[in-house]
Amino acid sequence: MRLFRLLKILHIAFKxxxxxFVLNHSRLQFLRVTVRxxxxxxxxxxxxxxxxxxxxxxxxxxxxxxxxxxxxRRDLLxxxxxxxxxxxxxxxxxxxxxxxxxxxxxVYGKKLSEIFLKFDEIPEASASVAQVHFAxxxxxxxxxxxILRPNLAPIIMHDVALMDTxxxxxxxxxxxxxxxxxxxxxxxxxxxxxxxxxLMREAANCSQLRRNFxxxxxxxxxxxxxxxxxxxxxxxxxxxxxxxxxxxxxxxxGIDIPQLARVGVxxxxxxxxRDGYFHADMHPGNIFVGATGQYIAVDFGIMGTLSDEDKxxxxxxxxAFFRRxxxxxxQAHVEAGWAPKDTRVDDFESAIxxxxxxxxxxxxxxxxFGRVLLQxxxxxxxxxxxxxxxxVLLQKTLxxxxxxxxxxxxxxxxxxxxxxxxxxxxxEQLGFRGLASRIQKEAPNxxxxxxxxxxxxxxAIAENRNHELEKRMTDLVIEEKRQNRLLALIAILLTGLLAxxxxx
Length: 504
What we know:
Blueprint: H1 2-15, H2 19-23, H3 32-38, H4 48-59, H5 61-71, H6 79-86, H7 97-108, H8 112-115, E1 118-119, E2 125-126, E3 130-136, E4 142-148, H9 153-173, H10 177-180, H11 182-196, H12 199-212, E5 219-220, E6 233-237, E7 242-243, H13 247-252, H14 257-275, E8 277-279, E9 287-289, E10 295-297, E11 303-305, H15 308-322, H16 326-335, H17 345-356, H18 369-382, H19 392-408, H20 414-430, H21 432-449, H22 453-503
Parallel strand pairs: 5-10
Antiparallel strand pairs: 1-3, 2-3, 3-4, 4-6, 7-9, 8-11, 9-10
Helix pairs in contact: 1-4, 4-5, 4-6, 5-6, 9-11, 14-19, 14-20, 15-16, 15-20, 16-17, 17-18, 20-21
């Protein structure tokens, strides 16, 4: 099955002329005319960006998601390609209304009119995994209904299998393959795809994020209507806002765009460091802006989590980076086990400084993060730094946030915006407030343990005494056995001596 899927991928790539991207390389341009001549029957009149988008749509959800991520990196892509790929965020061709209605009636076991008072058969948005329709519940509540695409699981399964095979080959043939833990990365990606195919999980994700930002002026998360949710259908509060990508419209509404960009950075760091729970698919198609300038999030299929250890490590690295303390960045990598223990910290520090120093005090529009990431990758390879699969989603989200910030405000100073937040977070974790917070958190446990302290102390003392007594008894037994062996040896010697005297 993998072979057939691979052949299909190659066929679609060839059909839409994606070989052009390879043949444009300076070393291969001499083949371009030959290939075009031999494949004259192909219709390649459409622009390259449109052909790439159509190919990704034809290949399925995984490739669509890849295109979504690329669409946020306008610093890495030509504008024509970036504009076309941006259509993948919410303009994927929908499936028919007949399929939608039959799927809903099958899931609920009722006629559509019995489920909803009103249902809009024309989808409001269509994405790689599901599409959204507006509806009105029988109590008059406006709702958004998210429905999975039919027959999606087998396609995803085959694509993930191909990715795993490719990762295995890369680890076997490429010197950096094992260091990058490509198969673990694929496994992590597959796990989150499984989450996206179960809308009950997405509903739970939405509910959790809503609790984290309940009454927050930064971010609004819609309410989930649990009575209507199933594994293939999710029903939640309908939200009204302007897509964040429509910057001109937002300006006409009186929204402060630079402030909006700064709030986006604050939301990201709040999710990561305060909650350790973050929206990991924050491309522009999933973010709206309310009339008051409040962010509105949708699509909660992919969420990331971070342990306390991960958060502390990341905060230390970010702060050290913002303070240009490259020695601390290098040392943190070694302490976390990401770099070998025998790594020369001073050499690693110099390599990081050479990459990062030129980008400080520059707005986003003057920074090529693609180049920075490439240089950091080269530096990490030199020092055998291991890629951490659990942070892959965070890395992806960082790319999305950077692309979003670049679109909103190219003059945004990312460092100055993020640094105060991280300093405050570190103070709360490591200072007096952090101590007080941890004491408050552990107080319920102490309330249970404290009354038992006398008994536990007595028990510990008794156990210690018993342990000492057992140790003494063991020592006595050992000593007794030693003495018995000595006495036996003496007896044997005396018997031998007596026998020698008798027979003398």
